């Protein structure tokens, strides 16, 4: 998760405002499948990192989030 924290920090610091948080994939030593609690805790952790980074770099937290695996197909196709 430390690598995920760093990745989110980098995206937000670079100016990305729409952040997709999908924490449904298991890491090396995780149970398969992950529990809903673990997925939610990880998404909350990354959202907090994103909000704090945005405040630090831009003075406000004006991010938008896509959370989870159920997202539209890129480009709007079916």
Automatic annotation (TrEMBL):
Entry's EC annotation: 2.7.1.144
Keyword Kinase: yes
Biological-process GO terms, alphabetical: carbohydrate metabolic process; D-tagatose 6-phosphate catabolic process; phosphoenolpyruvate-dependent sugar phosphotransferase system
Superkingdom of origin: Bacteria
Gene3D superfamilies linked: Aldolase class I
InterPro entries, per the entry: Aldolase_TIM, GatZ/KbaZ-like, GatZ_KbaZ_carbometab
GO molecular function annotation: tagatose-6-phosphate kinase activity
Pfam families the UniProt entry points to: GatZ_KbaZ-like
Pathway involvement of the protein, from the record: Carbohydrate metabolism; D-tagatose 6-phosphate degradation; D-glyceraldehyde 3-phosphate and glycerone phosphate from D-tagatose 6-phosphate: step 2/2
Presence of the UniProt keyword DNA damage in the record: no
Coiled coil (residue ranges): none
GO cellular component terms, semicolon-separated: plasma membrane
This protein's UniProt keywords: Kinase, Transferase
Protein name: Putative tagatose 6-phosphate kinase
């Amino acid at each position: 998760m430390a690598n995920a924290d760093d990745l989110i920090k980098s995206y937000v610091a670079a100016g990305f405002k729409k952040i997709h948080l999908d924490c449904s994939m298991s890491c090396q030593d995780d149970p398969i499948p992950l529990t809903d609690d673990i997925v939610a805790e990880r998404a909350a952790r990354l959202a907090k990192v994103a909000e704090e980074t945005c405040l630090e770099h831009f003075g406000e937290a004006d991010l938008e989030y896509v959370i989870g695996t159920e997202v539209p197909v890129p480009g709007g196709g079916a």
